[in-house]
Amino acid sequence: MNIVRSAFRNPPLLTFLLVALVWIVSSFTLRGFGAYGHLRYLLELAAVIGIVAAGQTLVILMGGIDLSVGAVITVTAILLPLISPAWDPTGLAGIAAALAIATGIGLMNGAGSTYLRVPPIIMTLAMATFLQGLLVIVAGGSAVTVSNPAVILLGQARPLGIPSGIILWLVVAVVVLLLVHRMPIGARFLAVGANPLAARLSGVSVTRSTLIAHTLSGFFAGLAGILVLGMNRQGYVGIGDPYLLTSIAAVVLGGTSILGGRGTYAGTVPGAILLVTATALITVVNASPGWRSIMFGTLILTLLLVSGREARR
After folding, report:
1. I want to staple 55 with a disulfide (CB 3.0 to 4.6 A). Which of 116, 220, 282, 298 is the partner?
2. How far is residue 209's CA from residue 203's CA, in Å, rounded to a whole number?
């Protein structure tokens, strides 16, 4: 009983318990669901959502939202094979260039929100629309195959039987948790999200904090794009679209307030796993993509209403 009460007071713990419950019940009712290989595959898929949701969490903690993450993933997945220089046998130069582009896009989002005073939701939506049009011009409707050895290694390697994407996610999780809970910038993110005016009057640079949050969001979206490219071995227009909705849903499911000022990446991690698990269960019952979108949309809307009511209280 005490565990249940603590869970309801701690959204990340509640999400973890919900994931465990779903996994246990599904393992007993669905053949093969609880197999190690299947659960490892679910975690590998959740790693992509979790990495892109890392940046999304930082932006939402500040009371904003990044609608360009899907487009940034697509940009990274398409441009990386095109800009990887032939003189670099490791492929690291191409990865660095792609991450620089993704980080630059995030920086432009932050600059537009701060210096031009465009609301983040509008700025990132405009950026996503611009990038989608640019990608259609550059790549058309054709897919781009990757030959970068470092990207292929990231997407396909399994050291000690663990997919490298999961290991990368663990590293990202540790870095983001330290940033939010052990570094001054994390406290500034929460302060700005709770009350921008009070944060500014207390000496917090809202402009710098916004720039950092959006820049990191672009970086993590680019990192997720590289992982997606390595897992699929090709990039194409629209490859990053599914991760926009799921990155927001993972953050909200983890207990982070969509209005900012309250939350933690520790909740986003099980939120990503829960989303992937729900998708797998929907696939088992042969639900159509339309019903899948309806369920995700309904879930996000419900959680948004709950978050808004709690904030008013």
Report:
1. 220
2. 12
Question: Is pLDDT of 310 > 50?
Answer: no
Integer Cα distance of 124 and 116 in angstroms? 13
Question: How far apart are alpha carbons 135 and 257 in whole angstroms?
Answer: 33
The answer to whether residues 241 and 70 touch, using CB atoms and an 8 Å cutoff, is yes
- CB proximity list for 146: less than 8 A, separation 6 or greater: 80, 81, 152, 229, 230, 233, 234, 235
pLDDT of residue 126: 94
Are the C-beta atoms of residues 54 and 173 closer than 8 Å to each other? yes
C-alpha closest to that of 263 among 220, 311, 296: 311
d(CA 229, CA 24): 32
Side chain identity at 145, as an amino acid letter?
T
Cβ atoms of residues 57 and 69 within 8 Å: no
CA 159 and chain centroid, separation: 24
User: Token match 């009350």: residue?
Assistant: 195
Residue 214 burial (CB count, 10 A): 32
CA distances from 254 to 6, 48, 93, 167 (A): 15, 16, 35, 21
The Cα 113–Cα 147 span in angstroms is: 37
Residue identified by tokens 């130069």 is 93
pTM for this entry = 0.90
Give the CA count within 13 Å in the CB-facing half-sphere of 238.
Answer: 4
CA distance 213 to 192: 11
Q: How confident is the model at residue 237 (pLDDT cuts 50, 70, 90)?
A: confident
φ and ψ at 234, to 5 degrees?
Answer: -160, 155
Q: Considering Cα of 223, then 229, then 235, then 239, what sign does the dihedral take?
A: negative
Residue reference for tokens 């290991």: 167
pLDDT confidence of residue 308: 47
% the chain with pLDDT above 90: 42
